[in-house]
Design goal:
The structure holds two protein chains of two kinds. Chain A is mostly loops. Chain A is rod-shaped and about 20 Å long. Chain B is mostly helical. The longest helix of chain B has 27 residues. The chains are: A little secondary structure, B mainly alpha. At the A-B interface, loops of A face helix 1, helix 3 and helix 7 of B.
Chain lengths: ~10, ~220
């Protein structure tokens, strides 16, 4: 499944 | 990176720098909850475990170091600095850490993306950040004296998460990946917690009166 997008957020 | 997230990060950065500057210049932490500051240090510690393992961007790494450094500096000032610590109101700042930390930890163990240490810690940090402001809001209600800088600090802290919600809406419509529902819910709960503070903050600003929270 796709990775959640928020991992590059602070 | 979109404008909402950049504005959110900058607002968050200003809020912690305003607080650090206040404590450093007037050598006082009156009205500041040490409990909330310690919870934020824990949020950043559990959120940024990937600091040395996954490199995302220079911006990401620098900001993480600033947030970690500033939150631990604020805790150090209130706990250790010989002058600042005298203005810490420990009789009023009595919110129990474990009333917040334990439920968040249990929730993170029950509801998470994947059951790995880093993932559970990351989820824990999301839940914890949503409620970490509670000791500060309780202290403001008790002491009722909200000096400008403390009011601005809480306001900016709430504004940053509200901007992050706009960022998640924007990314939801523009990027193939998805914003996980855990992130949505924790972020919305966090912003709602500030809602009543925002209401009284705007009322005081509009009527140009000192900010008073109802007992």
């Amino acid at each position: 499944d796709e990775q959640p997008v928020t991992k590059d957020e602070l | 990176m979109n404008i909402f997230r950049l504005a959110g990060d900058m607002t968050h950065l200003v809020s912690v720098l305003v607080l650090l500057l206040k404590i450093h210049t007037i050598k006082s932490c009156a009205g500041i909850s040490l409990k909330t500051q310690e919870l934020y240090a824990l949020v950043f510690t559990t959120r940024y475990l990937d600091l040395f393992t996954d490199y995302i961007s220079l911006y990401n790494t620098v900001m993480k170091l600033i947030f970690l450094g500033s939150s631990f500096s604020i805790v150090w000032y209130i706990r250790r600095h010989k002058i600042v610590r005298r203005s810490y109101d420990k009789d009023q700042d009595t919110f129990r850490h474990y009333f917040i930390v334990l439920p968040c930890l249990v929730l993170a163990l029950l509801i998470h993306h994947k059951f790995t240490f880093k993932e559970v810690m990351w989820t824990f940090s999301l839940y914890l950040e949503a409620v970490a402001i509670l000791p500060q809001l309780v202290l403001l209600q008790r002491t009722r004296n909200i000096d400008n800088l403390t009011g601005q600090y809480v306001f900016l802290l709430g504004a940053y998460r509200a901007l992050y919600i706009l960022n998640w809406i924007y990314r939801h419509y523009t990027e193939p990946h998805y914003v996980h529902w855990i992130t949505w819910i924790a972020g919305i709960v966090q912003t709602l917690l500030y809602a009543d503070f925002f209401y009284y903050y705007f009322q005081s600003w509009k009527n140009n009166v000192k900010l008073q929270l109802p007992a």
